[in-house]
Design goal:
The chain is α/β, with parallel strands linked by helices and 235 residues long. It has one domain (7-233): NAD(P)-binding Rossmann-like Domain (Rossmann fold). The chain has seven helices and seven strands, in the order E-H-E-E-H-E-H-E-H-E-H-E-H-H. Helix 4 (141-161) links the parallel strand 5 (124-128) and strand 6. Helix 1 crosses helix 5 and helix 3 runs parallel beside helix 4 (141-161).
Length: 235
Amino acid sequence: MKIAGSVALVTGANRGLGRAFARALVERGAHTVYAGARDPGSITDPGVIPIKLDITDPAEVADVAGRLGDVNLLVNNAGVSRSASLLNADSLDPARAEIETNYFGTLSLSRAFAPVLARNGGGALVNMLSVLSFMTLPQVGSYSASKAAAWSLTNALRLELAAQGTLVVAVHAGFIDTDMAAAVQLPKIAPEDVAAQTFDAVEAEQYEVLADHHSRDAKAALSAGVEVLYPALRR
């Protein structure tokens, strides 16, 4: 599909990568760009329409899907990271929050907008995932688990939505230069670069974006054995 003339909804669009997605859509000539956030007042970029949307609130999701009947491009970008390990977190709350948003929130939006996309010719659905869909780190174990679940969800959605002609694109990246990775002292990819690669893939009808060498290397290592992904396990 073409970005120019499309009608898009971007979740988590008030900052970081979501904001870059919304801006890129405007720059590429999208007809309408709905920018979803829990606080729509935090969205001030020109050319976008702020939408109040908490993807973990089923009532809000249903209401937005009912009102935005012209959408033919859904960008599931909203996500959270609590930077918690599986065993050392004080409680299960971080893991629950990540699964609730990163997995169930993405599933909820996808279910709500699948019929909308079908009525509008199929369109495309983009899920923002992570290099941590493929691998994990001890300090972010629960976040990695939620993104791995979202990767599996994306593959299943791709199969289920194929019959209605909806392209499902998975986007994986390592460290993106946003608030979420602010504490990481390693080279990062610009959010604008991720957005550009994503919409290039949508227009080229590609299923997957491996936005940086971290995601490409991790995906390639999946067939090479556990010790390749996790050298600490080597004895």
